Amino acid sequence: MAKLNLVEAINLALKEEMARDETIILLGEDVGRLGGVFRVTDGLQALYGPNRVIDTPLAEAAIVGTSVGLALGGFKPVPEIQFMGFLPAALDQIICHVSRYRNRSRGRFSLPLVIRMPYGAGIHAPEHHSESTEAILAHLPGLKVVIPSNPYDAKGLLLAALRDPDPVIFLEPKRIYRASRDEVPEGDYLVPLGQAKVVREGTDVTVVAWGAMVREALRAADLVAPEGIAAEVIDLRTISPMDDETIAASIQKTGRGVIVHEACRTGGLAAEIMARLQEKAFLSLAAPLERVTGFDTIVPLLKLEDHYLPDAGRIGRAIRKVVHF
Amino acid sequence: MNLQDFDPLLGRRVEILDPQGQVVKEDLRPAALDDAKLVELYDRMVWLRVADQEAMVLQRAGRMGTYAPTLGQEAANIGSAAVLQMQDWLVPSFREMGAMLLHGVPLELIYQYWMGCEWGSHFPEHVRVLPICAPVGTQTLHGVGLAWAAKLKGEPTVTLIYFGDGATSKGDFHEAMNFAGVFRLPCVFFCQNNQYAISVPRTIQTAAATLAQKAVAYGFPGLVVDGNDLMAVYAATQAAVAHARSGEGPVFIEAQTYRLGPHTTADDPSRYRTPAEVESQEQYDPLRRVRLYLEGRGLLPAPEETARWERYQTEVKETAKKAEAAISLNPDDIFAYHYATMPPYLASQQAYLHRLLAARKEAGHG
């Protein structure tokens, strides 16, 4: 079994599924000849030709908007937005159409497309290349929003997304594109959408994270372990629909919780998770829930970026705070 | 008709039937548009006008929600959609009731949509028409995507994309034009330039002399047509669709028309244009000139003509009743169509609504 990083795992999923399903086409800026600015689509145009891996003009709204039409015309388009910071131009199409077509037409039309994009900070990129605005997407009815945290899940989640009859936004944490290698099997396996995973078991506190923050949460768990704190870490994997049952079950066991995301705090998904835990696990709570998030600021440019991003140290402090409450 | 003859930078406009019902350019009149076809399309225009007027009445009577009338734009609607074949796609904005009807959408459904029921956008499976699209210009990209799908599959399908003059100011429109040009897609951009985007006149949308000339910058033909001239609209659309179908790429048609009614039933045009202006446009009424032409040819005997209007007036009232009767008031519909499989949290919100309705019923609040 090959050891692959996140980029290679996504590439493998696309390569295999495009062979299985001839209606899949990739389109976006630089996805063809260049293989994507992160090389996620490397080699696919050579393999499947310029009619299935299409370099488009530079226009995010059109990349998504024409994908709507391509899907209505019988294809399964996989548009790429080059960076989440450039998503706003395409949000009009996503909010007004992608998320609504099935409902608007009472099921006459569906849009089985998968919109891929790298997201998040931590790679010392220029302005507008570090955003994590996933809460905006999770707020929209009619979409599914998936975020892998490791190569194995990335392939299985992407295959599941490609076989889903509804639109899926697939956010790729670019900070960990090449951070680790997993055993990634060739061939079919699906990681079901909408299911969180307990990636480390523990009894004292629950830490919920997704994307690049899962790695930080696991490091934080290592950090506090010598202090006798056994942290359970949950990788949410799909932020919409959210598997709050798995989180609530863990909180019922540990009684304490820390929610981590690199996005801004206000209106972020930690707030939503805390609200759901109020509803589902209030009587199990032994301490107020904590959240470790980005600040309510614009993501700083590279010189100050590290101050913005939650890391194992900050998460560790929050863990101690709720454990010693 | 040669599209190049009407290069928008030449300042020409396609005109065949003048406001007095005289054919002024017989050589441009398509062979397919013989007198029998003309009677048929005139009949569709009458149907549209009656159905449109009935919708206004229904809205005033509280039986319909906000409605966007097509009054004055019958030639642009009917003359364009009449050219399509069954396998072609029609992508409307929200002032294309006639085009939608002609391409197979039942009037009952269009009424239902404006009455406030999503089932009005659930068109029959074989009808290749997209739902009405409110966000201005956004649908142009969907039309381009459909055309792209047809091209990639090698199907001889053309997509006819409708929008208004206001849409030509939107980014989506320009991106759609650009993609269509770059990939030489089989689509026709049909702009119903009715001179107003709600209150804002065409002159505030662009400094360009015509909208059609925008096509020049995207590398494909554009042309201006008298949008109130059924023959001109038909001829231009026929030439454009043939061009697209033959693999030559897209065409942009600017159909210059005039919105005789309000933007919607919620609009008050007296705040931005004078009655005199509207009256001055009535001489260009698209129905009138076809009627004058056909009368001159002895093709509209008075008794038949009277019967036609009466028949449609009765028919659309019946359709409105059927539309009302078929409206679904099932609250489950709110939840059932967001995903192929309903996620658990939606099922629980649906159950909550049921409990709420049951409790209200029990408490006698209905």
Brief descriptors of the model:
heterodimer, A: 325 residues, alpha/beta, Rossmann fold, 2 domains, five-stranded mixed beta sheet, 12 helices, 14 strands, B: 366 residues, five-stranded parallel beta sheet
Describe this structure in words.
The complex is a heterodimer of chains A (325) and B (366). Chain A contains 12 helices and 14 strands. By secondary structure, chain A is of the alpha/beta class. Chain A has 2 domains: 2-184, Rossmann fold (3-Layer(aba) Sandwich), CATH 3.40.50; 197-323, 3-Layer(aba) Sandwich (Rossmann fold), CATH 3.40.50.920. Chain A has a 5-stranded mixed sheet, sandwiched between helices. A 4-stranded mixed sheet of chain A has the order 5-7-6-12. Chain A has a 3-stranded parallel sheet with strand order 3-2-4. In chain A, α1 runs parallel beside α7 (151-162) and α8 (213-224) packs across α12. By secondary structure, chain B is α/β, with parallel strands linked by helices. Chain B has 2 domains: 3-326, Thiamin diphosphate (ThDP)-binding fold, Pyr/PP domains (Rossmann fold, 3-Layer(aba) Sandwich); 333-362. In chain B, α1 crosses α2 (74-81) and α2 (74-81) runs parallel beside α9 (230-245). Classes of the chains: A alpha/beta (325), B alpha/beta (366). Chain A binds chain B through residues 25, 51, 56-57, 59, 61-62, 64-75, 77, 89, 92-93, 96-97, 101-110, 141-142, 144, 164-166, 194, 241-242, 244, and chain B through 89, 118-119, 121-123, 125, 130-131, 135, 138, 140-150, 152-153, 159, 171-172, 175-176, 178-179, 182, 333, 336-340, 343-345.
